[in-house]
Design brief:
Immunoglobulin-like; five-stranded antiparallel sheet; 13 strands; 31% helix
Length: 229
Amino acid sequence: MTTTTATNTNPASSIYEALSSSKTSSSTASANATTDMQDRFLKLLVTQLKNQDPLNPMDNAQMTSQMAQISTVDGIEKLNTTLQALMSNATESQSMEAAALVGHGVLVPGSNLSLSSGAAYGGVELSGPADKVTVTIKDGNGLVVRTMELGSKEAGAFPFQWDGKADNGNTAVDGNYTFSVSAKQGSNTVTTTALGVGMVSSIMRSSQSISLNVGNLGLFKMSDVREIL
């Protein structure tokens, strides 16, 4: 009497379990890991074919389905590798762009003004054109020192200079001030953003992003730079 070797009634289950156990917690797999996973799959498939029940062999549909599964996994691994390479290239390119900004003045979001030797610089960003742009400068106590009318401006970012003069004609003392911006186009309010002016002194690179060190203004992303002066 012929002895029949018992087999798993669900051959796909053991293959998928083996594939799952071969995956690591890392979101990206190396080429060696992908090859190892393929080898595992093929060895398991060959073993199943050798030990299958002659009275109930694996049909072509099962085999085709399992081969399609490993092809899909292989394609995903290759896609992840390609994406990682593209992200790495983008990061390197951004690093070079950031390094080129060292020593240059930039406009970045912020509402601080530093008055020194009768001069302070700030910036404004307008969401649309405006026929009236007003800058209000305040001291450390929140009291209005100077109200400046900048006239009409087009949409976008631009710098402005404060000569240190107060509304009463006196010269304000050197130090730190803050400012706010308002703008109108006719009777409509135009959205504004106050911008600080600073010089990029260095860049800081981490695994997640690249930051610009803009002196006393702090750290900013490349996307925060509104204009290079």
